[in-house]
Amino acid sequence: MLSNIRVILINTFHPGNIGSTARAMKNMGIRNLYLVDPQDFPNEQALTMAAGAKDIVEQAVITSTLAEAIADCSFVIGTSARDRTHSLPQMNARECGERVITESQSHPVALVFGRETMGLHNDEIQQCNAHTYISAHPDYPVLNLAAAVQTICYEIYMAHQIQAEQPYKSNSNQKEKTYPNTQQMEYFYQHLETTLRNIGFLIKQHPGNTMLKLKRLFNRARPERQELSILRGVLSTIDKLAESTKKESTKKEEH
Amino acid sequence: MLSNIRVILINTFHPGNIGSTARAMKNMGIRNLYLVDPQDFPNEQALTMAAGAKDIVEQAVITSTLAEAIADCSFVIGTSARDRTHSLPQMNARECGERVITESQSHPVALVFGRETMGLHNDEIQQCNAHTYISAHPDYPVLNLAAAVQTICYEIYMAHQIQAEQPYKSNSNQKEKTYPNTQQMEYFYQHLETTLRNIGFLIKQHPGNTMLKLKRLFNRARPERQELSILRGVLSTIDKLAESTKKESTKKEEH
């Protein structure tokens, strides 16, 4: 299960934080580190702070966008301070640990951590299926990046240990659903956008943020694999209809 | 409750770890930092790493020994890797969080963190009433000092939040016992040693480690305040007996 979990750091400023993150991960048995557009990497400071987790730093996967880093994941969790304004399902770190252990039994799961100063941008949050926050004192709720990674990974490891001690209980709770990965969702969104353009719902000259809102909705709903097939089937049916309507109107024009 | 909790760092090598510890504490609402014989403090690096918790660093209490730092505490918890060989009661970080919240309702509680490389020395562990460890992966279970403080303080804050949500349940579980503080235990040990010398059980020329073993036993047993009064009463009775026996034998010699 732990091998199906990855930690993604976006646009990290201090290379020392990359090293501290690697150490925090390895302490908790999590080994897959992805770095999206790191500002200063490779850097000796990352290896120094990693201490006994230099292997995690050296094997880190570098990507230029978050989309690449989560392409094969079926559950993506964004981390930031608690926020009641955005629309994703929210859970605290303890609930997150339990959820990650359940999900990672069947597919890759990503934990996404934003910049030291700014956290995650809106377009990054919208690529997530859920959001987690660490309960903290209101006087100063802003954890250091590596400290946040430590806390989340600790809760995952605790959930892992608790489940190992109660296999029967956990198995009975386990859901048998299978989910598409981010890449498959991306294909669906492309299909959706094409179809909506074909039928004139979206107008190329005035794209607006309709697609953004639809993506947000579907990410939140998190369709299962079978449900996504149905949605793709609906789109194909619309496509055919649009195609025949087009032919029909072309014929009429010819007459 | 949180104001009755202190974090004690012993002989810290990297001043940056002092700052990161202060931040981890403040994030979780814990404000009392004690530094026992820090190797490089004050130091700018501590303030840099503290970020929004510089006040915690600036108000830190410096002592030269652990005994001074815990003198007014009634429950002292040492932290290190899990170890089945030593004799203290052990609990994981989650159990520690719950225990600290219960204890801190009635008296000061200390969490003691050892050196970056060596942890706590045996004589320091023997000054503790209990021991806590953070569950970690056996491949690399050694957390960075500030990461360990973060995890323990997080569990304390979680226990605090959970209790705040369930006041009735927690109150009914709450124990009404009161415990002596470390200074009072120290007076008892001095009394015990004096008495044991007076009656010839301990011989000044061959002190051995009998007192050490007795201290370990009583720290583990953790007498309540009333029980300690009884023990002090026993010692006083023995003292009087020893005194009168001495007078008696002096009289006999005079005859």
Automatic annotation (TrEMBL), chains A, B:
Gene source species: Zooshikella ganghwensis
GO biological process: tRNA nucleoside ribose methylation
Domain named tRNA/rRNA methyltransferase SpoU type: residues: 5-154
Subcellular location: Cytoplasm
Assembly behavior: Homodimer.
Highest taxon, organism lineage: Bacteria
Annotated keywords: Cytoplasm, Methyltransferase, S-adenosyl-L-methionine, Transferase, tRNA processing
Catalysed reaction equations from the record: cytidine(32) in tRNA + S-adenosyl-L-methionine = 2'-O-methylcytidine(32) in tRNA + S-adenosyl-L-homocysteine + H(+); uridine(32) in tRNA + S-adenosyl-L-methionine = 2'-O-methyluridine(32) in tRNA + S-adenosyl-L-homocysteine + H(+)
Molecular function terms, GO-annotated: RNA binding; tRNA (cytidine(32)-2'-O)-methyltransferase activity; tRNA (cytidine(32)/uridine(32)-2'-O)-methyltransferase activity
EC number: 2.1.1.200
The protein's enzyme class: transferase
Function: Catalyzes the formation of 2'O-methylated cytidine (Cm32) or 2'O-methylated uridine (Um32) at position 32 in tRNA.
InterPro entries xrefs: Alpha/beta_knot_MTases (IPR029028), RNA_MeTrfase_TrmJ/LasT (IPR004384), SpoU_MeTrfase (IPR001537), tRNA_m1G_MTases_N (IPR029026)
GO cellular component term, pick one: cytosol
The protein's name in its UniProt record: tRNA (cytidine/uridine-2'-O-)-methyltransferase TrmJ
SUPFAM superfamilies xref list: alpha/beta knot
Homology family: Belongs to the class IV-like SAM-binding methyltransferase superfamily. RNA methyltransferase TrmH family.
